[in-house]
Amino acid sequence: MFQSTQYKGSKEDQYQLLIKQVDALLDGEPDGIANLSNASALLNQFLDDVNWVGFYIWKQDELVLGPFQGLPACVRIPSGKGVCGTAVSEGTTQRVYDVNAFPGHIACDAASQSEIVVPIFKEEQIFGVLDIDSPSVGRFDETDEKFLTLFVKTLEKYI
């Protein structure tokens, strides 16, 4: 769930608070990169058991590294390659229980064991992806997927 002990309640309640916080944090700021930067920092602050949180932006037919929190990462990912590229090519969230079992997984950080990638759309076109890695197998569940999708839907208003 979340790192901060000041937030009580269920996992769902905590995610709802996180979504309200990102909405308030980004409201009024027109710069998309600044908003992605703050969104990655907010997620990194609140999610526990993660080692990379960030964004890849779709540019010239490939994903290019955007704002993130974590170790240095792969800079470019083609559509259909790895978890991020698969999310783009299929237009769907990819929740991977064990990245070592994912065909073609791109290992930017050898510590990553599970991953969730949520596609981001702008004007019904792919804009990029939210990518979150964990050093634990099976870190992400259906609740994470549901609320990270809602987080991205909120974020899409500010990019």
Automatic annotation (TrEMBL):
Domain of life where this protein originates: Bacteria
InterPro entries, A to Z: FRMsr_CS, GAF, GAF-like_dom_sf, Phosphatase_reg/MetRdx
Span of domain GAF: 51-156
A Pfam family this chain is assigned to: GAF
Regions annotated as coiled coil: none
Database matches in Gene3D superfamilies: 3.30.450.40
Protein family according to the UniProt entry: Belongs to the free Met sulfoxide reductase family.
Name listed for the protein in its UniProt record: GAF domain-containing protein
Organism: Halobacillus seohaensis
